[in-house]
Inverse folding.
């Protein structure tokens, strides 16, 4: 048994990566659910949440609350994506595809909070950009995580 | 002093402190009584306890899912640098699964059944004990490694 376990030592890391990636699916699912529940998923909802509507007695979000929200979400998304991107670089998929996924991922993570500020200070149309960038974040997270799990389960790693 | 050993030592100490505050917070908030946990989350009109909202629970669940899984991953990956036996593999699985169950059980208590409050207590205890044992093992193997290097 001991030989068997030592022989499979490198597979211990694969086990950890698979466990982490499965948890990351839960994180993706609950992140989307949170946006739905807090009425911040669709463009109109995002704009209403930030700018409010005095006719419907909905107060606009305070700048401090908005920045607090951005501050926490940006950190969570960045550290989460950094982790799965780090794992992605160990897989054997096409290098250009890796670069593309990482570039699109980080770009959408940055665009999302900027578009929220855009809604507050510039134009309501940024609601569509916020919606699109959040969708892109979720899609990239899902794709990268799936590549990681499949690669580590099939042993297609460096 | 070896910089790596110092860094790992400080990291382990900080995570132990984090564990301690986590246990403290759990007892302050929920106690260890499953019925009380269920009442706090699902509400109890007789005791004028309002049920928790899905939004409130999700706001806690989402950041914790990432933070716990990342922290556990970082701690457990140190096992790679020492001998891995079946105990460490079972311990790793236990810590990961109990940590996630502990976080997700709030949603399950609210949306599915109060029975999950028992799962919450059990998974919380398993997670805290398992993570503490993991930290001790990582600390001991780092210390042994450092001593071997010095001799």
């Amino acid at each position: 048994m001991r030989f068997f376990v030592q022989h499979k030592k490198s597979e211990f890391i694969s086990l950890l990566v698979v466990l982490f990636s499965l948890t990351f699916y839960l994180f993706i699912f609950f992140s989307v659910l949170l946006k739905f529940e807090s009425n911040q998923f669709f463009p109109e909802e995002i704009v209403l949440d930030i700018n409010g509507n005095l006719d419907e007695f909905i107060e606009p979000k305070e700048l401090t609350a908005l920045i607090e929200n951005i501050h926490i979400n940006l950190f969570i998304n960045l550290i989460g994506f950094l982790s799965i991107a780090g794992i992605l670089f160990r897989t054997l998929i096409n290098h250009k595809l890796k670069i593309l996924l990482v570039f699109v991922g980080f770009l959408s993570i940055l665009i999302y909070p900027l578009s929220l500020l855009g809604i507050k200070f510039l134009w309501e149309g940024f609601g569509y950009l916020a919606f699109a960038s959040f969708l892109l974040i979720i899609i990239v997270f899902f794709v990268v995580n799936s590549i990681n799990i499949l690669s580590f389960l099939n042993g297609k790693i460096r | 002093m070896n910089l790596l050993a110092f860094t790992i030592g400080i990291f382990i100490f900080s995570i132990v402190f984090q564990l301690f505050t986590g246990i403290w917070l759990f007892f302050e908030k929920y106690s260890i009584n499953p019925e009380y946990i269920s009442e706090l989350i699902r509400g109890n009109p007789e005791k004028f306890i309002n049920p928790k909202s899905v939004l409130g629970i999700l706001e806690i669940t989402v950041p914790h899912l990432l933070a716990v899984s990342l922290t556990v991953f970082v701690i457990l990956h140190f096992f790679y640098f020492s001998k891995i036996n079946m105990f460490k593999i079972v311990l790793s699985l236990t810590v990961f699964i109990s940590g996630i169950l502990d976080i997700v059980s709030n949603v399950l208590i609210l949306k599915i059944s109060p029975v999950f409050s028992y799962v919450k207590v059990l998974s919380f205890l398993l997670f805290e004990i398992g993570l503490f044992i993991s930290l001790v093992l990582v600390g001991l193997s780092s210390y042994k490694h450092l001593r071997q290097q010095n001799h």
